[in-house]
């Protein structure tokens, strides 16, 4: 089975490559030659992941899935959430996003946060959804060089390293995205 992963984020593609079962041929947006922007104007991760998947499905007619992920910080009323990629405005820049987040969080004692991923999968005309959550906390300094986005300031519960200090393999054993992808893989194994 061929499945398009409707994302422009190369880090996401890299992360999930090893989690996809062998009988699935994963195609990225660059593999199919799509360079356009998909406007994510939904009000939730669910809506935005569905917008991305539906857009590619209707344009190419191929089965596909999309991931929308947000960092939800308890003391900031679950922000940046759906605004995670453009939290500090345009052009999108992870360092600026991190700086803004740390500034906004500086007066709060509660640093609890979670990453939440929602995957929308479209097979033929059927739509399915899978969620993955990892709880942790935000630290005030940047640590580690691996990963992407907010990884250098997020420590998952039960660990003393940030996601950016963990290897790709280690992050994949516990991450929001791997939980959602594994749910999708189990579903595909059983049903397709
Ligand atoms: P696509 O929409 O093309 O998939 P994107 O990077 O815009 O790519 P999202 O809207 O899902 O994807 O992601 C929002 C932002 O959240 C993303 O740009 C990162 O800054 C951050 N993010 C997502 N997943 C993350 C992860 O695993 N670790 C750290 N930050 C992450």
Descriptive account of the structure:
The protein is an alpha/beta fold and 192 residues long. It is 31% helix and 25% strand. Strands 1, 2, 3, 4, 5, 6 and 7 form a 7-stranded mixed sheet that branches. A hairpin with a 5-residue loop joins strand 3 (64-73) and strand 4 (79-80). The relative contact order is 0.16. The structure holds inosine 5'-triphosphate. Inosine 5'-triphosphate binds at residues 7-9, 12, 67-69, 84-85, 94, 97, 115, 147-151, 163, 175, 177.
Enumerate the spans where pLDDT stays under 50 for 5 or more consecutive residues.
none
Number of helices: 5
What binds here, in terms of ligands, is:
inosine 5'-triphosphate
Radius of gyration: 16 Å
Brief account:
With 192 residues, the chain is of the alpha/beta class. The protein has helices at residues 10-17, 45-60, 94-105, 168-174, 176-191; strands at residues 2-5, 25-28, 64-73, 79-80, 112-123, 126-138, 154-156. Strands 1, 2, 3, 4, 5, 6 and 7 form a 7-stranded mixed beta sheet that branches.
Features:
alpha/beta, binds inosine 5'-triphosphate, 192 residues
Layout of helices and strands:
Elements lengths: L1 E4 L4 H8 L7 E4 L16 H16 L3 E10 L5 E2 L13 H12 L6 E12 L2 E13 L15 E3 L11 H7 L1 H16 L1
Helix pairs in contact: 4-5
Bound molecules: inosine 5'-triphosphate (ITT).
The site of inosine 5'-triphosphate (ITT) has 20 residues, from strand 3 and helix 3.
């Amino acid at each position: 089975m061929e499945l398009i992963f409707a994302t422009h984020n190369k880090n996401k593609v890299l992360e999930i490559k090893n989690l996809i079962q062998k009988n699935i041929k994963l195609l990225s947006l660059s593999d199919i030659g799509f360079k356009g922007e998909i406007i994510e104007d939904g009000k939730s991760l669910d809506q935005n992941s569905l917008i991305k998947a539906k857009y590619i499905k209707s344009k190419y007619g191929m089965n596909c899935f999309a991931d929308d992920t947000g960092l939800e910080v308890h003391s900031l009323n679950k922000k940046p959430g759906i605004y995670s990629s453009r939290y500090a405005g345009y052009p999108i820049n992870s360092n600026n996003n991190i700086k803004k987040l740390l500034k906004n969080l500086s007066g709060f004692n509660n640093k609890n946060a979670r990453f939440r991923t929602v995957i929308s999968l479209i097979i033929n005309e059927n739509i399915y959804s899978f969620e993955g959550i990892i709880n942790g906390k935000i630290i005030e300094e940047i640590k580690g060089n691996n990963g992407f986005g907010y990884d250098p300031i997020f420590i998952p519960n039960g660990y003393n390293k940030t996601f950016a200090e963990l290897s790709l393999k280690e992050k994949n054993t516990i991450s929001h995205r791997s939980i959602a992808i594994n749910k999708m893989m189990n579903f595909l194994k059983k049903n397709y």
